[in-house]
Every structure is written in structure tokens, then in C-alpha cells.
Design brief:
The complex is a heterodimer.
Chain A (H helix, E strand, L loop, with lengths): L1 H38 L4 H10 L5 H15 L1 E10 L2 E10 L2 E9 L15 E3 L14 E3 L5 H4 L3 H9 L1
Chain B lengths: L5 H5 L1 E8 L2 E8 L12 H26 L7 H6 L10 H16 L16 H18 L5 E5 L2 E5 L10 E7 L2 E11 L7 E6 L17 E8 L2 H25 L3 E6 L4 E3 L6
Antiparallel strand pairs in B: 1-2, 2-3, 3-4, 4-7, 5-6, 7-8, 8-9, 9-10
Helix pairs in contact in B: 2-5, 5-6
The chains are: A alpha+beta, B alpha+beta.
Amino acid sequence: MRTRAAVSAVLASGGILIAGWQSGVHIADTSSSVASGAAGTTGATGAKALGTDGSSGTGTTGAAGTTGASAKAVGTYAGPVVQTRFGSVQVQISVRAGKITDVTALQLTDAERKSVQISNRAAPLLRDEVLQAQSADVQTISGATVTSDAYLNSLQAALDAANL
Amino acid sequence: MQPTSELDGSALKARTFGSMGTVISLTVPARALGTAVVPGTAGDGERELDAAAAAVERVFARADETFSLYRPDSEASRLARGELSLRDSSAGMRDRYADALSWRLMTEGAFSPERTDGVLDLSGIIKGYAIGQAGEALRSRGIADWCVNAGGDVLVMGSPVPGSGASWAAGVVDPLDRSALLSAYALGGPCTRRALATSGSAERGDHIWTAGSCGAEFAQVSVAAADIVTADVLATAIVAGGTAMLHRATEGWDIDVLAVRRTGELLATPGFRA
């Protein structure tokens, strides 16, 4: 019984090791592809590792390594103008150490009513900046619910009486 | 035959009745009532309006009979007293309950169909639902231009001047001076938004519970939307949920909002800007 348990434990840990190794390889693959994609050179990962290793002591190699990588891997990139069902949209990304740190919209269209939603936030407004109206100009009136009693003194009642 | 003057063409006819603790007004252009502008047959138009108003009144009366918590014999009151379970309630009751729960989910709890004492209270969506049904009743009678106002919540169709394409002009009451208008909004006509609802933190009807303990941020919130239930529920939710709910609402729904802070300051989406 004990040996069987030991064997299965060894098998299990072996399995974990293999899984770990596989996922490690996978992560390494993606990071290098991101780095090479951003920096455009295959040596970017190595330069970055060198920079972090010797960051405290030898400033020169580290600095050289980072400047080499930062020239491409750090910065902001504007994408092409893409047509969506809301209209044309252009996106800008900020990249730091090969990772996207921020995504902002450079261009959003108001061409279609629906797309206005994106910029349809309620903003502070002065009283004379809202659409103005006198009760003589309107056909109906919206207000917080009035009781039947309060209706008597309401603007809506005056409109209704005029149209009876 | 005399040519019809512009004044005749734009004349409006109104009928009012009381229901749900408030007053409901139906306004229809005289010209939309068939032969009303032809001299001598004006009586037909009046009768048509009376019949239309009666149909609208029936819709509200039926909704009130089922859902009013002010009527001890209503289905809602029997549910509240525990004499009836939701499982045994009518399909209409369960449908509105399902609607209300879905609104609670969508507004992240700012709108709720339950009172703080746990009693089911669907009044927050029933008025809007009844207004919408009243609109269907008017359409089915072949009336294409109308305005229904139930206690300050408005739904329109068509135009106040039939065939002109003009919008209905709805005023928004100034919460600081209820005898004056704060703003206006164009409903119907070429606009996709046909509904305008306004909720206030001091209004009758206890379906608004504010999230914070310090009271409501907004004295009044008006929401314009394509349908009246959305406008009504979101106006209620924004009064209850404050600025955070206001921004969620304008991001998640195709609406215009005019909100009045307790201090009198205004927040508005571009649709309310002059």
C-alpha cells in the first residue's frame, strides 16, 4: 500500500512538473513574441533581462539595454482608423516594458445617433444653457408625480383646461 | 367649403380623469379625430375623443384594480398580506414582477420592486406599463397622433399638427418653482424618443429608496427614451442611485437626462442643451 502511494505521488509530482514546464515554455513563447513584436529585434528579451540583473551595479549595460528596448517597447502607438457600425474609431495604445498599459480612443464618431451614447455623459450646465420653454409653447408637461389635489394648481391642469 | 385655418388645424382637444392617485390627461389634435374640422360634424370628433378617453381610462382602471396597494381587495394587497403566493398569482402579476426584477438587475439595485419592509411594490413600473398599454389602445382605435400624460409622465405618438411632422413640445417643471418650466424636450414627430418621465425625491409614491443615508442627491430627474417604462424606471433609479447611477444609465441606455441637484445645479446630456 505504502509503495503504491509513493509511486502515485511521484507520478503526480512528475505530472505537475511537466505541466509547469509546458506552461513555462508557453509563457516564454508569448513574452518573447510580444517583445519582438514591440521592439522589432529578437534580442529584446535578453537585453531586458540583462538590464534588470545589473540594474544596481553596472549602469552602462543596463542603461544601454533599456534604451535599446524602450525606444520601441515603451511609448504610444496610434492604430489605423477602423470603420465600425458606430462609425470610424481610432485607438491609441500605451506600451511599457512590452505590455499595454493604456488604451484610449483618439477618434469616435457622432455620425450615427447610437454612437453619441459614448459621449452622452450628463455634464454640468447652467440654467440658461438648457433648452428653454414657456408654458405657452408646450403641449404637455413632465414633472414629478402630482397628487390629484396638487393637479389643480399644476401647469398641466391649465393646459388641459385650455383644450377641453 | 371654407379652407381650414392653421389655428383650427393645430387645435388640441383634451380629456382628463383620475386614476392611480393622480390625474391622467389625453390630448389629441382636433384634426386627428376624423371629420372634426368639417363644420357641422364636430360632434363626431368629440364623441370619438370621449370613446378614446374611455378606452384609456379602462386600461388604467384595470391596472389599478390589480396592482394598487391602496386597495385592500387588489391582488397586490392580497400578496402583501401573504394571502396569495406569487406562484398562484395572475400571469400579469408574475410578468410585471419578472420585469421589475430584471430592472433591478440592470440598474444594479437602484430600482427595486420591494419596499424596505419587504412588501412587493410594483408601482414603480405599473404606471409606465399602463401608459404604454393606453398608447396601444389608442393606436388600435386608429388614432395616430396623441399625447398621454399620467401624473407628469408623458408618452406621445405622431404630431400635435397631424401630417406636419412637428414634434410634441414637452415642458419640464422647475422643481424649485413648480409654476415655471425648467426646460423643454421635443417628443415624437421625427424624434425616436416618444417618452419623457420625471421623478422627484419628494414625490408621492414610496417606491424610491435612496442608496445613501444622507438622502437623495437629486431633487428631480427627467429621462427621455423611446419607451415610457425605460424612461420611468431610469428616472426613478437615478433619483435613488445618484450620480453613479446617472452615468451608468447614460452609458447603458439610449436616453437623454436632465437632473437637478438639491442645490439647484443642473446636469444634462447634450439632448437637453439649447
